[in-house]
Amino acid sequence: MRAVVLLSGGLDSYTAAAIAKAEGFSLFALTIHYGQRHAREVDAARAVARALGVERHLELEVDLRPIGGSSLTSDAAVPHGRNLDAPGIPSTYVPARNTIFLSLALGWAEVVGAHDLVIGVNALDYSGYPDCRPEFVAAFERLATLATRAGIDGARFRVHTPLIALSKAEIVRRGLELGLDYGLTHSCYDPGPDGRPCGTCDSCVLRARGFDEAGVPDPVLLR
User: Fold this and answer.
1) pTM above the 0.90 mark?
2) Taking the CB of residue 61, how many other CB atoms lie within 10 A of it?
3) Model pLDDT, residue 126
4) What does the domain layout of the chain look like in residue ranges?
5) Could you tell me the pLDDT band of residue 57, with boundaries at 50, 70 and 90?
6) How far apart are alpha carbons 6 and 99 in whole angstroms?
7) pLDDT (0 to 100) of residue 37
8) Strand partners, 117
9) For the chain, how big is the Rg over CA atoms in Å?
């Protein structure tokens, strides 16, 4: 019962990992330094990994800045105060990020003998990213079987997405049921020099909505 979990340090990945742990999985956490401007999340990922008591926390450097195409990996402005119901994919989308991350997780899973991957994608309260949809996850599971020695030998890989059909408020409530300390997490796309969340990027707005609808304060804002 080993699982490789993608751990960003955000609210969603923390909750997804905790759910996997509650289901009996031994966690191997993978955090990617991909050149993101909000590197504060890497410190949060380390804190979350310690809190979860993971078997191992692997950090990889995969710099996506030369590829470009995202305001999270460049000097382009991060949108603030955007209408979350507006059509189109926002500039914070990182081209093929979840495909790349899951591929790295799949490679490590083969090495540690895990057939389960965990990712905190969500198809309800999100910014319209194409690689957060159930169709993408199902396609990656098929690819994993075709592209690996373990798959050719008969193993079936499963990508667990325990949050995919939950609202942000439901995610918060589930995490609190598990006793999670969300004060360890970081969600902001464009934090200030002191690491404080901006409060107006998509991620901050979605997080605030989740805590508000769950009827509890966000511990990050109480510091």
Assistant:
1) yes
2) 8
3) 67
4) 2-222
5) very high
6) 12
7) 82
8) 4, 159
9) 17
